[in-house]
Amino acid sequence: MSTLLALAPMSMEAGALRRGAPGALVARTGAGPSRAAAGLDGHLATARRHGVAAVAVAGVAGGLVAGMVPGQVVVADRVLRPDGSVVAELASAALLAGALRRDGLRASVGGVVSTTRLVRSDAERRALAESSGALAVDLESATLVEADWGRPAAVVRVVADVPGHRLVSPRTALDLARGLSALCRSGPGMQRWAEAAGRRSVILAGPRSYCAGVERAIETVRRAVERFGTPLYVRRQIVHNAHVVAELESAGAVFVRELDQVPEGATVVLSAHGVSPAVRAEAASRQLRVVDATCPLVAKVHTEMRRHAARGDQLVLIGHPGHDETEGTLGEAPGIALVEAPSDVARLDLDPERPVAYATQTTLSPEETSETVAALAARFPLLRGPSVSDICYATHNRQEALAAIAPRCDLVLVVGSATSSNSRRLVEVAERLGVPGHLVDDEAGIDLDWLAGASTVGVTAGASAPESDVTRVLRAIESLGPLELTTAEVRRESVTFPLPQEVR
Ligand code: SF4
């Protein structure tokens, strides 16, 4: 049984697909909408008879947008008529494009518009791009994807002619050869997409996604943009999430690494991870207006460190070197020793006869730090630790929720950015329980090989990942076949933090 039915208008396209996806069933539709329509019933019958898992319309196309190059792949997220009306929306596009990119192809996600005749001139291309918003033009996709296939469908078009290259010119043969080569190389990705297709269960962990500190930090930047105008400077990523940062950048926020990149007298927002007193002093010396979005739970750790230091304790921080939060806490008192693992404790140059006080990075749970704390207690009998109320509720809750569902899953997807410490910890929770876990920013990060054979998928999100990214991941999984979705909520969260005074 073949898993993929690939529909190619012309024989040279069908040949490229047969070479690239030898396990696929490849059928020729004929070029143009009339031929495609005439053969449609036959192709539908083929799909049923062979029980194919998924259908891909694939071939070469014309590029509509300046800057496109022959061999560039467009995976359609929508198929359009020239007036911009939508014939079909194809939710698998980002998943499939991600697979093609991993195979080294230049793949974009966008609209494909189907016309009734070849588009030859640049003026026609421009007009079509404007009226439809599409990236590529072909003749057959609208006719073929309008049909009810009853299984996942995709459109993969490789650009052969592009703006600036006339359709019939000395370059045509070379451009076409590039297009067919890329079509052939798209075959394995299409095949993997079809192999991942099928019915699936998803268990959503609850709580997941934004914590109160992250919500407060993002709202602080939005309000600061409204109140103080743009450009509004933000030191470091306000929260560790690529989509959130991009959205705030488009609203006028300018992210900088250090304050020397902020013009004197400008307004700067300090991120949720907190900063050391030295950064505040620098802001004052440069006469910056400061809006402090430090999470109150991080601020509480800073206060505790200062209190221990004032008492004369020797200080230890358990955390990851180089993390924004760790850097800020280390700056609260001179000589704070940083340890990451139990093995670091032996090299600490501290007096065991005197009190030692420790704090932990807020995104580390008590379970993760227990061995390091035990090693500290064994070496330093006068060890003082933080009170239970200093532990971040969000980190603990997200890990507890994932641990409750992971044993029922074949695969766990954690939505979050690689820079997010608490998201990476969630992957470790899954793996400690023997379940493969992967961190994805969004659906484009999902490797189709993970999904093949995974009938139950657990989904959660780090405290800095928006719920909209979770929805995108769920839609992408659903695009592969019927989805049974359940939510397993271990507890409700009702924590909120007031906004900084400057933006209330
Ligand atoms: S994870 Fe915890 S410490 Fe970090 S911002 Fe969220 S609530 Fe604050």
Characterise the protein shown here.
The chain is α/β, with parallel strands linked by helices and 504 residues long. Among the domains are: 4-196, Rossmann fold (3-Layer(aba) Sandwich); 200-208 and 393-489, Cobalt-precorrin-4 Transmethylase, domain 1 (3-Layer(aba) Sandwich). Helices cover 38% and strands 22% of the residues. It contains 16 helices and 21 strands. It has helices at 11-20, 33-50, 93-102, 122-132, 141-145, 172-196, 212-228, 242-250, 277-285, 296-310, 324-330, 366-379, 393-405, 421-432, 448-451, 467-478; strands at residues 4-8, 25-28, 54-63, 73-80, 86-89, 107-114, 136-138, 153-161, 200-206, 232-235, 253-256, 267-270, 289-292, 314-318, 337-339, 356-360, 383-384, 411-415, 437-440, 456-461, 483-489. The chain has a five-stranded mixed barrel with strand order 3-7-6-4-8, surrounded by four helices. A five-stranded parallel β-sheet has the order 19-18-20-9-21, sandwiched between helices. Strands 11-10-12-13 form a four-stranded parallel β-sheet, sandwiched between helices. Strand 6 (107-114), helix 4 and strand 7 (136-138) form a beta-alpha-beta unit. Helix 3 packs across helix 6 (172-196) and helix 13 (393-405) runs parallel beside helix 14. The longest helix has 25 residues, at 172-196. The model has no long low-confidence stretch (mean pLDDT 93). It binds iron/sulfur cluster. The site of iron/sulfur cluster (SF4) has 15 residues, from helix 7, helix 10 and helix 13.
